[in-house]
Amino acid sequence: MKKIFTLLMTVITLSGSSIVYADDTQTLDTLSEQKIHQDNKNLTILSVKTVNILSEEDINKKRDDSIDYIKTLALTETQKNEAIEELKTNKKLSGFEELKTKYTKISEDNIAKEKEKQKREQELNGPVTFNADGTLEYQKSDAAQEVINLLLSIPDHKNGKDYHIAHGIDEKIDNLTIKECVYVMKRIEDPGFGQTGDGYEGQENATSHKAFVEHQLNNRFGGSIKNLLKQWGTFKYPGY
Questions:
Q1: Among 236, 208, 192, 203, which Cα is nearest to 134's?
Q2: Which pTM was predicted?
Q3: How deeply is 150 buried, as exposed, middle or buried, from its count of CB atoms within 10 A (0-12, 13-18, 19+)?
Q4: How far apart are the C-alpha atoms of 231 and 228, rounded to whole Å?
Protein backbone atom coordinates (compact mmCIF):
# COMPACT_ATOMS: atom_id res chain seq x y z
CA MET A 1 0.00 0.00 0.00
CA LYS A 2 1.24 3.52 -0.84
CA LYS A 3 1.05 6.44 1.50
CA ILE A 4 1.39 9.96 0.17
CA PHE A 5 2.85 12.69 2.27
CA THR A 6 2.29 16.29 1.23
CA LEU A 7 4.89 18.65 2.52
CA LEU A 8 4.05 22.30 2.72
CA MET A 9 7.06 24.46 2.52
CA THR A 10 6.69 28.18 3.19
CA VAL A 11 9.48 30.34 2.09
CA ILE A 12 9.53 33.94 3.23
CA THR A 13 11.55 36.25 1.11
CA LEU A 14 12.19 39.82 2.09
CA SER A 15 12.44 42.21 -0.80
CA GLY A 16 12.05 45.77 0.27
CA SER A 17 8.73 46.05 2.10
CA SER A 18 6.98 43.18 0.30
CA ILE A 19 6.66 39.53 1.49
CA VAL A 20 6.62 36.63 -1.00
CA TYR A 21 5.15 33.22 -0.11
CA ALA A 22 6.14 30.09 -2.06
CA ASP A 23 4.48 26.70 -1.73
CA ASP A 24 6.27 23.52 -3.00
CA THR A 25 4.71 20.10 -2.83
CA GLN A 26 6.83 16.85 -3.12
CA THR A 27 5.45 13.34 -3.26
CA LEU A 28 7.49 10.54 -1.70
CA ASP A 29 6.85 6.84 -2.23
CA THR A 30 7.54 4.92 0.92
CA LEU A 31 9.02 1.43 0.87
CA SER A 32 6.48 -1.28 1.33
CA GLU A 33 6.67 -3.41 4.43
CA GLN A 34 7.59 -6.42 2.28
CA LYS A 35 10.54 -4.67 0.62
CA ILE A 36 11.87 -3.49 3.94
CA HIS A 37 11.71 -7.04 5.22
CA GLN A 38 13.58 -8.34 2.12
CA ASP A 39 16.29 -5.68 2.39
CA ASN A 40 16.83 -6.52 6.02
CA LYS A 41 17.10 -10.19 5.12
CA ASN A 42 19.70 -9.50 2.38
CA LEU A 43 21.68 -7.29 4.72
CA THR A 44 21.71 -10.07 7.27
CA ILE A 45 23.06 -12.55 4.69
CA LEU A 46 25.82 -10.19 3.57
CA SER A 47 26.83 -9.63 7.16
CA VAL A 48 27.45 -13.31 7.84
CA LYS A 49 31.13 -14.32 7.82
CA THR A 50 32.45 -17.85 8.16
CA VAL A 51 35.71 -18.17 10.05
CA ASN A 52 37.58 -21.49 10.07
CA ILE A 53 39.98 -21.80 12.95
CA LEU A 54 42.72 -24.41 12.43
CA SER A 55 44.20 -26.08 15.43
CA GLU A 56 47.88 -26.78 15.95
CA GLU A 57 47.06 -30.43 15.27
CA ASP A 58 45.65 -29.50 11.84
CA ILE A 59 48.80 -27.53 10.97
CA ASN A 60 51.06 -30.38 12.05
CA LYS A 61 49.10 -32.91 10.00
CA LYS A 62 49.37 -30.67 6.93
CA ARG A 63 53.11 -30.39 7.55
CA ASP A 64 53.55 -34.17 7.95
CA ASP A 65 51.53 -34.87 4.79
CA SER A 66 53.66 -32.38 2.86
CA ILE A 67 56.89 -33.96 4.13
CA ASP A 68 55.65 -37.42 3.08
CA TYR A 69 54.89 -36.03 -0.37
CA ILE A 70 58.36 -34.47 -0.68
CA LYS A 71 59.95 -37.84 0.08
CA THR A 72 58.27 -39.33 -3.01
CA LEU A 73 59.82 -36.79 -5.40
CA ALA A 74 62.92 -37.28 -7.54
CA LEU A 75 65.14 -35.01 -5.48
CA THR A 76 68.74 -35.24 -4.37
CA GLU A 77 69.32 -35.81 -0.67
CA THR A 78 70.37 -32.18 -0.31
CA GLN A 79 67.21 -30.97 -2.04
CA LYS A 80 65.01 -33.22 0.11
CA ASN A 81 66.65 -32.01 3.30
CA GLU A 82 66.22 -28.37 2.24
CA ALA A 83 62.55 -28.95 1.41
CA ILE A 84 61.83 -30.69 4.73
CA GLU A 85 63.58 -27.93 6.66
CA GLU A 86 61.50 -25.29 4.89
CA LEU A 87 58.31 -27.21 5.68
CA LYS A 88 59.25 -27.52 9.34
CA THR A 89 59.78 -23.77 9.70
CA ASN A 90 56.79 -22.74 7.58
CA LYS A 91 54.11 -20.84 9.53
CA LYS A 92 51.57 -20.18 6.75
CA LEU A 93 48.94 -22.71 5.70
CA SER A 94 49.30 -21.62 2.07
CA GLY A 95 53.04 -22.06 2.39
CA PHE A 96 52.73 -25.85 2.36
CA GLU A 97 51.19 -25.89 -1.12
CA GLU A 98 53.69 -23.30 -2.35
CA LEU A 99 56.60 -25.44 -1.21
CA LYS A 100 55.09 -28.60 -2.70
CA THR A 101 54.70 -26.80 -6.04
CA LYS A 102 58.26 -25.48 -5.86
CA TYR A 103 59.86 -28.88 -5.24
CA THR A 104 57.57 -30.70 -7.67
CA LYS A 105 59.02 -28.45 -10.40
CA ILE A 106 62.56 -29.22 -9.23
CA SER A 107 61.72 -32.94 -9.30
CA GLU A 108 60.40 -32.70 -12.85
CA ASP A 109 63.58 -30.90 -13.94
CA ASN A 110 65.70 -33.61 -12.31
CA ILE A 111 63.79 -36.32 -14.18
CA ALA A 112 64.21 -34.52 -17.50
CA LYS A 113 67.96 -34.12 -16.90
CA GLU A 114 68.33 -37.79 -15.99
CA LYS A 115 66.52 -38.86 -19.15
CA GLU A 116 68.80 -36.65 -21.22
CA LYS A 117 71.83 -38.09 -19.44
CA GLN A 118 70.70 -41.65 -20.14
CA LYS A 119 70.04 -40.77 -23.75
CA ARG A 120 73.53 -39.29 -24.09
CA GLU A 121 75.06 -42.35 -22.39
CA GLN A 122 73.25 -44.59 -24.85
CA GLU A 123 74.51 -42.51 -27.76
CA LEU A 124 78.09 -42.66 -26.48
CA ASN A 125 78.35 -46.21 -25.17
CA GLY A 126 75.32 -48.15 -26.34
CA PRO A 127 75.30 -50.85 -29.02
CA VAL A 128 75.36 -50.10 -32.73
CA THR A 129 71.93 -49.62 -34.26
CA PHE A 130 70.44 -50.59 -37.59
CA ASN A 131 68.41 -48.79 -40.24
CA ALA A 132 65.15 -50.23 -41.52
CA ASP A 133 67.05 -51.82 -44.44
CA GLY A 134 69.37 -53.70 -42.06
CA THR A 135 72.46 -51.54 -42.61
CA LEU A 136 74.21 -49.84 -39.71
CA GLU A 137 73.26 -46.29 -38.78
CA TYR A 138 76.04 -43.70 -38.98
CA GLN A 139 76.46 -39.96 -38.60
CA LYS A 140 78.96 -37.54 -40.11
CA SER A 141 80.56 -34.85 -37.97
CA ASP A 142 83.69 -32.73 -37.69
CA ALA A 143 84.76 -34.70 -34.61
CA ALA A 144 84.43 -37.96 -36.55
CA GLN A 145 86.43 -36.51 -39.44
CA GLU A 146 89.24 -35.53 -37.06
CA VAL A 147 89.52 -39.15 -35.84
CA ILE A 148 89.44 -40.40 -39.44
CA ASN A 149 92.35 -38.12 -40.35
CA LEU A 150 94.38 -39.22 -37.32
CA LEU A 151 93.85 -42.95 -37.85
CA LEU A 152 94.69 -42.75 -41.53
CA SER A 153 97.87 -40.86 -40.57
CA ILE A 154 99.26 -43.90 -38.70
CA PRO A 155 102.30 -45.05 -40.74
CA ASP A 156 101.32 -48.08 -42.83
CA HIS A 157 98.19 -48.34 -40.63
CA LYS A 158 99.99 -50.74 -38.24
CA ASN A 159 102.13 -50.81 -35.08
CA GLY A 160 100.50 -47.52 -34.11
CA LYS A 161 99.95 -47.99 -30.37
CA ASP A 162 102.35 -45.16 -29.50
CA TYR A 163 100.80 -43.03 -32.23
CA HIS A 164 97.39 -43.46 -30.59
CA ILE A 165 98.84 -42.29 -27.28
CA ALA A 166 100.87 -39.40 -28.69
CA HIS A 167 97.89 -37.91 -30.51
CA GLY A 168 95.23 -38.61 -27.90
CA ILE A 169 93.23 -40.63 -30.41
CA ASP A 170 91.52 -42.87 -27.86
CA GLU A 171 90.22 -39.91 -25.87
CA LYS A 172 88.77 -38.43 -29.03
CA ILE A 173 87.12 -41.76 -29.84
CA ASP A 174 85.54 -41.83 -26.37
CA ASN A 175 83.88 -38.48 -27.12
CA LEU A 176 82.26 -39.75 -30.32
CA THR A 177 78.75 -41.17 -30.46
CA ILE A 178 78.29 -44.76 -31.65
CA LYS A 179 76.85 -43.52 -34.94
CA GLU A 180 79.89 -41.30 -35.45
CA CYS A 181 82.14 -44.30 -34.79
CA VAL A 182 80.33 -46.32 -37.46
CA TYR A 183 80.96 -43.45 -39.87
CA VAL A 184 84.67 -43.46 -38.97
CA MET A 185 84.86 -47.21 -39.56
CA LYS A 186 83.12 -46.89 -42.91
CA ARG A 187 85.58 -44.22 -44.03
CA ILE A 188 88.85 -45.80 -42.85
CA GLU A 189 87.88 -49.18 -44.31
CA ASP A 190 85.06 -49.31 -46.87
CA PRO A 191 81.23 -49.61 -46.92
CA GLY A 192 81.59 -53.28 -46.03
CA PHE A 193 84.01 -52.46 -43.18
CA GLY A 194 86.89 -54.28 -44.84
CA GLN A 195 85.69 -57.82 -44.19
CA THR A 196 88.07 -59.50 -46.61
CA GLY A 197 88.06 -62.78 -44.68
CA ASP A 198 84.29 -63.16 -44.93
CA GLY A 199 84.17 -61.91 -48.50
CA TYR A 200 82.10 -58.81 -47.69
CA GLU A 201 84.75 -56.19 -48.51
CA GLY A 202 83.10 -53.14 -50.08
CA GLN A 203 79.57 -54.49 -49.70
CA GLU A 204 77.08 -52.21 -47.97
CA ASN A 205 74.01 -54.31 -47.25
CA ALA A 206 72.15 -55.96 -44.39
CA THR A 207 74.05 -59.24 -44.70
CA SER A 208 77.53 -57.71 -44.68
CA HIS A 209 76.76 -55.34 -41.81
CA LYS A 210 75.20 -58.11 -39.72
CA ALA A 211 78.29 -60.23 -40.29
CA PHE A 212 80.51 -57.32 -39.22
CA VAL A 213 78.66 -57.01 -35.92
CA GLU A 214 78.57 -60.74 -35.19
CA HIS A 215 82.02 -61.79 -36.44
CA GLN A 216 84.08 -58.69 -35.62
CA LEU A 217 82.48 -56.52 -32.96
CA ASN A 218 80.99 -59.31 -30.85
CA ASN A 219 83.66 -61.99 -31.32
CA ARG A 220 86.78 -59.84 -31.16
CA PHE A 221 85.97 -56.51 -29.47
CA GLY A 222 83.38 -57.24 -26.81
CA GLY A 223 80.56 -55.83 -28.93
CA SER A 224 82.11 -52.34 -28.84
CA ILE A 225 82.97 -50.43 -31.98
CA LYS A 226 84.97 -48.02 -29.83
CA ASN A 227 87.21 -50.86 -28.69
CA LEU A 228 87.77 -51.73 -32.34
CA LEU A 229 88.72 -48.17 -33.30
CA LYS A 230 91.07 -47.86 -30.31
CA GLN A 231 92.94 -50.90 -31.59
CA TRP A 232 92.74 -50.03 -35.26
CA GLY A 233 96.26 -49.56 -36.66
CA THR A 234 97.98 -51.05 -33.59
CA PHE A 235 98.37 -54.61 -34.93
CA LYS A 236 101.35 -56.01 -36.79
CA TYR A 237 99.23 -55.99 -39.91
CA PRO A 238 97.28 -53.02 -41.36
CA GLY A 239 93.86 -52.03 -40.00
CA TYR A 240 92.16 -54.36 -37.56
A1: 208
A2: 0.67
A3: buried
A4: 5
